[in-house]
Amino acid sequence: MSRAGTFPLDFSSLTPPREPCWFLALPEGFDSPAEAHKRTAPVAMTPADALARFKAIALAAPRTRLVSEAGLQVELEQKSAVFGFTDKITAEAMAAGPDRAVLAVYSRALVGYYDFGVNRKRVTRWLDAFYAAGRAK
Q1: Beta carbons within 10 angstroms of residue 37's beta carbon
Q2: Could you tell me which of 8, 53, 104, 135 has the fewest CB atoms within 10 Å of its CB?
């Protein structure tokens, strides 16, 4: 699979590249051949509301734009500040029970071998903001 991948992305069959230039957050217990770097927890909201919250947080980040949206999945791009390298981020909100949702997020560099932890920091920052927004209400 190319790093860009196809959209919408099937998280249940995702196979990230061998290069250490990606970061993946999956729900607890999610069955996938890819090993998650971080596990996500359910929130008390519908999947549509969860995706809207995550998308708003992502789009508030500098140099980030929405590329595609289909159902409960979005694909975003963020460019690096200095060189303008493009990273692709795919997020999906999934049902985790009645009026409960959980996120899967896959962030990857489109060029280069190593990302210096940029994808990990981005996903962690966005997920931290996502969960903090729920606690603030």
Answers
A1: 16
A2: 135
Pairing assessment for the beta strands 22-27 and 86-95 based on DSSP bridges: unpaired
First to last CA, the chain: 40
- Report how far residue 25's alpha carbon sits from residue 107's, in angstroms, rounded to the nearest whole number: 9
d(CA 119, CA 16): 13
| CA proximity to 94, closest of 4, 1, 22, 28 | 28
Tell me the pTM: 0.92
Convert the pLDDT of each residue in 76-135 to its tens digit. Answer: 999 988 888 999 999 999 999 999 999 999 999 998 888 889 999 999 999 999 999 977
